C-alpha cells in the first residue's frame, strides 16, 4: 500500500500576518469581554477597595483626593455649606447589598459633626442639589460596628442625599436663644414647656 503525498503550496507571509493579527485581535477582545463581565461580580462580592476601583470608572462618578466618590444627580443653586453650617437634608443610607440602615426626610445636622466622607460630600452640594456618595470605610465608621450591627465594621456606605437648605450654626443658635427668651404663651417662662 502506498501513500500518495499531496504537495502543499507555501503560505504567503501576508496571509500568515493576517492570521496572527486576527488571533491577536480575538485574544484582546476576549480579555476585554472577560474584564467587563467581572465588573458586576466585583460590584457585588469584591472588597470595598475592589468595588471603589471598579466604581471610579462608571459614567458620572467622580473621586476626590480623599477617596470619596460621588455622582451629582441634580445640580443645586447658590453656595455650598461649610463646616460651621447646619444643614437640612433628605437622605437614605445603604450598604452595598442595598440594605437601608438609615433614612430621613428632613434631618438637621451640623456639617462638622458627621462622618468625614458625609461631611465632605455635603460641602460639594448646593441648595436643592442631589447626589449619591460612596464612602470608603476610612471616611466612614472604619473598623467600628455601628447601630447595633446595622452597619458592620469596615463597611462601604452609600448615601443618596438632597440638600434642602443650610444656615450658619451661629445663626441657628441665635434663633433658638431668641425663641427661648421670648417665652411661649401659656407655657413655662423663658421657653418651650419642658425644654431645658
TrEMBL record:
Domain PPIase FKBP-type: 84-167
Cited PROSITE patterns: FKBP_PPIASE (PS50059)
E.C. number: 5.2.1.8
Record keyword DNA damage present: no
GO molecular function: peptidyl-prolyl cis-trans isomerase activity
Superkingdom assignment: Bacteria
Signal sequence, renumbered to the chain: none
PANTHER family in UniProt: FKBP-TYPE PEPTIDYL-PROLYL CIS-TRANS ISOMERASE FKPA, FKBP-TYPE PEPTIDYL-PROLYL CIS-TRANS ISOMERASE FKPA-RELATED
Similarity-based family: Belongs to the FKBP-type PPIase family.
The protein, known as: Peptidyl-prolyl cis-trans isomerase
Amino acid at each position: 500500500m502506498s501513500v500518495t503525498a499531496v504537495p502543499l503550496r507555501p503560505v504567503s507571509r501576508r496571509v500568515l500576518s493576517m492570521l496572527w493579527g486576527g488571533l491577536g485581535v480575538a485574544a484582546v477582545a476576549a480579555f476585554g469581554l472577560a474584564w467587563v463581565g467581572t465588573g458586576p461580580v466585583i460590584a457585588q462580592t469584591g472588597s470595598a477597595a475592589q468595588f471603589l476601583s471598579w466604581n471610579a470608572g462608571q459614567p458620572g462618578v467622580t473621586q476626590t483626593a480623599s477617596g470619596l466618590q460621588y455622582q451629582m444627580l441634580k445640580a443645586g443653586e447658590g453656595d455650598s455649606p461649610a463646616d460651621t453650617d447646619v444643614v437640612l437634608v433628605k437622605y437614605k443610607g445603604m450598604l452595598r447589598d442595598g440594605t437601608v440602615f438609615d433614612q430621613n426626610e428632613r434631618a438637621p445636622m451640623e456639617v462638622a459633626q458627621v462622618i468625614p466622607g458625609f461631611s465632605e460630600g455635603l460641602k460639594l452640594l448646593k441648595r436643592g442639589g442631589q447626589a449619591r456618595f460612596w464612602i470608603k470605610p476610612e471616611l466612614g465608621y472604619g473598623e467600628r460596628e455601628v447601630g447595633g450591627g446595622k452597619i458592620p465594621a469596615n463597611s462601604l456606605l452609600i448615601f443618596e442625599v438632597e440638600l434642602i437648605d443650610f444656615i450658619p450654626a451661629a445663626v441657628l443658635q441665635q434663633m433658638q436663644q431668641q425663641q427661648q427668651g421670648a417665652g411661649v404663651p401659656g407655657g413655662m417662662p423663658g421657653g418651650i414647656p419642658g425644654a431645658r
